[in-house]
Amino acid sequence: MKHIFHRYGILFVVVGMISPDIAHAQAQRITLERPGDREFVLDNANLLSDGDKQKIKRIADQLLTDKAVPIIVVTIDSMTKYGGGGLTIESFAQQLFDQWGIGPAKINNAEWNYGILLVVSKLDRKARIELGAGWKRDKDALAQTIMDDLMVPRFKAGEYSTGILSGVEALDKMARDLKLPSKPQPAWFYPVVVVVAIIAIFTAISIYRSGRGGWAWLIWGVVFSLIGMLLYELAKPKSGSGYSGGSFGGGSSGGGGASGSW
To answer: Which fold would CATH assign to domain 33-183+244-261?
Structure first.
């Protein structure tokens, strides 16, 4: 009996020591004022050029209208400056997402929660893509590809504005279930493409002059026309609900995401 009491007595002491810390973490609030309902960008670290900021707003506004999916971009100097001292970038982004209620939680009484938050902390050298619970971690791999291939390499080069814009463009594609933009190609890529194109042209001329396969050109023309039409249809915004609401509607995090550092 004494042994049991001793064991649980220690447990109660440990819980008593931990509880104030847990309460403090729960009470911790990120001191960032959220942007307006269709402003989409809070650039407190001044990382974005005016041109890129406007492009991001246009992309985010169209996506919100088409798909009821808001993309919110936040840049800060450091997490500590805004009440996030001691937090990881994941915890910071998650708390901010929930605090602001990014995205509609429901549409027509159906569960929704497809908000997207992108946080870039310059001095902490960390970034996070946080996804609403509706994504159900299905996009974790794509989000990590966006972070690793399109954003972090540009952040390492000091190209914050370009990196953030590239990330938003890719997140827009992800939300529309379209193919992601390719990562930047190495310097040798384009010369190789030119050489291959030249070889292909000379090969085509040789075949044409030899008089072989004249009918094949017609078939290839039809094939490329069909491919062009297909790509055009895929690139067009899907007809969505024509959502006219704002960026914030009680949404919550929990759908996964991706982190990066440089």
So the answer is: Diaminopimelate Epimerase; Chain A, domain 1 (3.10.310)
Are 103 and 70 within 8 A, CB to CB?
Answer: yes
Distance CA 162, CA 154 (A): 7
Q: Could you give the CA distance from residue 223 to residue 158 in angstroms, rounded to a whole number?
A: 43
> pLDDT digits over 130-142, tens only?
999 999 999 999 9
- Residues 12 and 9: their CA atoms lie apart, in Å, by 5
Question: What is the C-alpha to C-alpha distance for residues 103 and 38, in angstroms, rounded to an integer?
Answer: 11
pLDDT digits (tens, 9 = 90+) for 10-52: 444 444 444 444 444 455 789 999 999 999 999 999 999 999 9
The burial of 255, by beta-carbon neighbours within 10 Å (0-12 exposed, 13-18 middle, 19 or more buried), is given as buried
Q: Is 117 exposed, middle or buried (0-12, 13-18, 19+ CB in 10 A)?
A: buried
Strand order of the β-sheet with 71-76 is 41-43, 71-76, 116-121, 126-132, 253-261
Residue 195, both tokens: 């050489």
DSSP state string for 41-66 = EEETT--S-HHHHHHHHHHHHHHHHH
Tens-place pLDDT, residues 44-84 = 999 999 999 999 999 999 999 999 999 999 999 999 999 99
